[in-house]
Automatic annotation (TrEMBL), chains A, B:
The keyword Transcription applies. Coiled coil: none annotated. Residues 24-122 form the HTH hxlR-type domain. This is Helix-turn-helix transcriptional regulator. SUPFAM superfamilies: Winged helix' DNA-binding domain (SSF46785). It comes from Rhizobium mesosinicum. The keyword DNA-binding applies. Keywords: DNA-binding, Transcription, Transcription regulation. Pfam families: HxlR.
DNA sequence: CGGGATCCCGCGGGATACTG
DNA sequence: CAGTATCCCGCGGGATCCCG
């Protein structure tokens, strides 16, 4: 589309390494992003802190267990912080740490791409499905 | 860091939906990106087409089976294309489709972020590990 | 309310062997 | 070389119950 040379150049470095062996920084971070819920958590916290139950409502189809684990991992990585208010019943607030906030921009790029190109992906999948149906 | 208001605004839209129910476009794409090898494949193909065996060498710790599956999925989504040369032995070339090429830019953003902030993440993890060791 | 502890199941994905 | 076909195991993650 546009001239991607600088972008491609940035990839060449990785591709030449000879690529991305098991424990490289990039794969480390990418794996964490692959963990099904982490990305959604960051998105849900983008517009400000939320409590545990608010996060559950924000992402309805997550189990308490998985929500807890996802939040713990993100906290461990310094992406979010966790504040316990010693009220009764307890209230716990999660918010993006400064490090987490810096993720929003690249993440927004991916989201925007997903939103823009999802129709094309769907079309490609439908095409493929038709082909499969036809050749039987 | 910088003023993130426009970025945050883009998230608010999703967070308000009330968020990202099970089969929304964004999660659809994000799930695919989570599939452990797909992102690496796109990276490996960024600087030009590659053959099956070249991809194996580029990402040494992937099994043939998983490589095949990852490539099939990406092809199904219209991200890459697959060309078979009827030589003997056969040669198969994979390359980014136009749709796939448009992914490089947002993906490069994530890669750059990962590269830049990985030290901070490691530091946070190490800190956490020390705390755990201390409280025993 | 915000978890922890257990149990349990599915499937992602590795290892191996075979094929055109 | 570029796959397919099987087999099999681990663990991600849901469901359920409990607790301060």
């Amino acid at each position: 589309m546009t001239d991607n040379d600088p972008v491609i150049a940035s990839f060449k470095r990785w591709v030449a390494m000879p690529v991305v062996t098991a424990r490289c920084p990039v794969r480390d971070v990418l794996d964490r992003l692959g963990e099904k819920w982490t990305t959604l958590m960051i998105m849900a916290l983008a517009d400000g802190p939320k409590r545990f139950s608010e996060l559950r409502r924000a992402v309805p189809d997550i189990s308490k267990r998985s929500l807890t684990l996802a939040l713990r991992n993100l906290e461990e990585d310094g992406i979010i912080t966790r504040h316990v208010f010693p009220t009764n019943p307890p209230a716990v607030e999660y918010r993006l740490a400064p490090l987490g906030a810096t993720m929003l921009e690249p993440l927004a790029g991916m989201i925007a791409w997903a939103e823009r190109h999802h129709p094309e992906i769907q079309a490609a999948r439908d095409r493929r499905r038709k082909e499969l149906a036809a050749e039987v």
